[in-house]
Amino acid sequence: MDRKPRRSLHRAPAAAVAAVLAVAAALGVAAPGATAADRTDGTEPGTARVPLRVATYNIHAGAGQDGVFDLDRTAAAIRDLDADVVGLEEVDVHWGTRSDFADEARELAGRLHMRVFFAPIYDLPPATPGGERRQYGVAVLSRFPVRGAWNHEITRLSTQTPDPVPAPAPGFAEVAVGVRGVRVHVYATHLDYRKDPSVRRAQVDDMLEVLAEDRGPKVLLGDFNAEPDAPELARLWGPLADADPDGGKTYPAAGPVSRIDLVTVSPDVTVTGAYESGTTASDHRPVVADLLLRRRGR
Predict the structure, then answer these.
(1) Is the residue at 6 inside a domain?
(2) For a 10 Å CB count at each end of the chain, is N or C smaller?
(3) Which of 147, 80, 146 shows the shortest CA–CA distance to 112?
């Protein structure tokens, strides 16, 4: 278990990992059997490259393009991606009536038989006395063991307070996943949606600072609320690469006009394929990428 200190942590790494493992145990999640990685063309365990399928999906708090809350439909859309690791954005945990006060992170993990780490952006008092705290943020689902998990702070402009000013706030998730002897760092993010790009530019700088602390293969997943060629994302390219530069639009899910949902990877990760799903189980389309990770010493 990784216990390395982090400057921008919102919670202790050990506690975060314990939470992931507790959820896995409570849900009866066993070690993965057949995974998407097993089915990548021509790559067998023990070779120099280790396959991994990842995805990013803004789940719109479990509501489809039709505005109807249906977490079973959300789970089915994720299952159809057949991804080993999935970054989720707009995840409600006991948030409100729009999602029936569900713990979406835990419930999706249970339906999909995956491990989960939830990183709240907002953590508010219960709606009623004695109720659960209201949380909203991002999550990472994984078929593979989670060796470490952190909820980092990045610059944010709150949607929950009047006259907000940019300030550090949590909700940038990182998990260290063990994939057949390769340790890969996977990050899930949801950047600011406003027209003013200044907060997104600051968020990019903050994320790159976090990524620079880690060694080895890295995968950054998320809803960037900007096209890849937006000036505020420019500093990402070099440390990372767009896994699907010729990919289709992702938002809105029905008749998309913008490509704002991205899978990005570090230079030591090889992309063998990528696509966006046409599902309308959310107002965003998910993006899937097939990757190859290099084993150390090869």
Answers:
(1) no
(2) C
(3) 80
Average pLDDT over residues 273-281: 98
Q: What three-state secondary structure class fits 34?
A: coil
Q: How many CB atoms lie within 10 A of CB 255?
A: 9
**141 is written with which tokens?**
């689902």
CATH for 248: 3.60.10.10
Range of the domain at 286: 13-29+50-294
In a domain? residue 39:
no
Q: Are strands 49-58 and 85-93 parallel, antiparallel or unpaired?
A: parallel
Q: Tokens 């995956």 map to which residue?
A: 114
* Mean of pLDDT values over 287-293: 98
CB 244 within 8 A of CB 289: yes
What is 61-76 written as a DSSP string? GGB-TTS-B-HHHHHH
The stretch 101-120 carries a mean pLDDT of 98
Q: Half-sphere exposure of residue 161, counting CA atoms within 13 Å on the CB side? A: 12
Q: How many domains does the chain have?
A: 1
**b/e code 103-112 from CB counts within 10 Å (16+ = b):** bbbbbbbbbb
pLDDT of 25 > 60? The answer is no
> Does 171 fall in a domain?
yes
| Segment 178-201 mean pLDDT | 97
- Backbone phi, psi, residue 206, to 5°: -65, -40
State which amino acid sits at residue 284.
H
Answer yes or no: is 35 within a domain: no
